[in-house]
Amino acid sequence: MVAFGFLDWLWIVLYLLIMVSAGVLFYRLGRRSESDFFLAGRGLPWWLPAASVYATHTATDTPMWVSGVIYRHGLAGLWYSFFAGWCAISAFVSTRIFRRSLAYTQAEWNTVRFSGLGAELLRGWMSGWQVFMSMFILGWVGIAMGKVCQYVFGWPTWIGLVVFSSVCAVYVMAAGYWGVIMADFLQGVVAFAVILIVSVWGVVAAGGPSAIVSRLEEMGEGWRLNPLAFSGWFTGDFPIAWFVTMLFIALLGGFGMGTSIDWYVEAQRIQSARTVRDASYSIWWGTALVLMRNSIWAVAILGFYVLYPRIPDTADYEMAWFRIGFDYLPAGMLGFFFAGIIAIHISTISAVLNLGAMYFTRDLYLHYWKQTASERELVWVGRVATLVLLVGSFFYGLIMEEITSWLIFALWIMAAGVWLPNILQVVWWRFNAWGYLASWIANLGLSWLVVWVLPSFGLLPELPDYQQFWVLMVLGALIYLPITFLTKPDDMDQLVRYYVMSRPIGWWGPVRREAERRGLLRPEAR
Amino acid sequence: MAWIRRTWTPAAADEWTREDWYTIVISPLAYILLMVGVALSLLLFPAGFAVLGLGILATLLMHWIIDPKLKVISGEYEKKQRQYLEELERAARWKETGHG
Question: Residue B22: how many CB atoms within 10 A of its CB?
């Protein structure tokens, strides 16, 4: 437990008051329309969604994750956080294409890109999945805050889970995305300042940069300073084969939509930007800040390693950055540190609350339930959905320990086998709704087989995760590619309309020629 | 012909051109250099400052290449956005849309 003084509590109370007042201040803007409640009226300059990209990529469990991989792998652990690198290409490819589609959500994009029953099945599936995922992520992040509060104050975990998510829900319900984005900007600034101050403090506590380097070399662990300290081609903790697979997944994934779980939340930031250019820069700069932030953390964790080497228990060394803050900051600064942790926490909570509510309101309520709903009604549905997600997240958070391993597996199976289809849907005109739907269904079955069932019967060796990725990618393609070719292409009217509006990259020749034939595009512009 | 085109017509900017491909290559490189450069610079390695400097240069170059094109794409698209939004709203509410 950590002892807080008056000044510490003052920091926390002031911070919470400022956050809630963001909801009150932007209440009038948020209630104007569905577009305001979920996309801030599509009028934001690039630096506001960029701050939100940064803030939402910084959750309570992020310092635990980064601490864990750096403590274990040294600077090479930075590559485990480089999956965010999908934004490098996405910012100038899929972000541009998605922004031009104007779809509120990825589920809605399915009915802009594809046509007919297949498109509707995709939209229904994806919106339901995203509502569920939002609730799950809220529970996951919420319980991480519960654990931090237990570490700091000795509270039962449910208190940290319920209290801070509830405070956050006040401004999300009041002002919708306007509240989220404005609070995210403030939270981004506070969180970055706290990360910087605490990390520098940690480095100083370890004797400074030079002392960290010399101490690691004295310990015979100088390899921790090498970001490319590979353990072999295919062997050890950090093989080159893993590194190449990671770069392949992270970077080429930027050509697609949904290749990273973060795509769905960033898609909302993309649509809230006022122009295509603002959307591109918001994604690029928000992520650049995330990657540089991870580097700052990494050096602090190396300092922690020098102070506390060879801790065997993962749960202990994952708390490294929090321990630096609580063990080394002086009285009066602890409250500032905790306010920063609150900022890190509720920026993610607010973003996911509003995102899940948007999928429910736009894709399920409006599109499938009540097509005549007024703007005012949609805002209220958004508020009620936010509340339901909040309560649902408490349920998930409290049973998280029991279901985490299953759900991590579920996340994995939702990512590996559909990685390539998520790209094909963007770059290849002939890839249709049935092929994409088949890839999701095939992946569900194949993942169980490759990861659990076949290894348990000895029919397949237990493969490292990066090898599972390649196996699932190939096996899935053997199913969805034939289905794509055996079913009709999507309706040409729909494809032409989508092409002219979004101008996708890749293999769109027949659609392009049809658009030119109809006089919608000029051949000389090619 | 210039290696990098800096002035664009709206129709030409809407196409995928070599400027986009230069950006697609430089952008990941900039991320890697910035990430590794910040970590090594904080440890006061001279090579870290060099890597960070290269990362900043790559970032500036990327913006110099793609920004004129993005400005034109954005300006042109905004003129059509209202009509597209109306179509999107009609589709969301299951009303007839003007195909093709």
Answer: 16
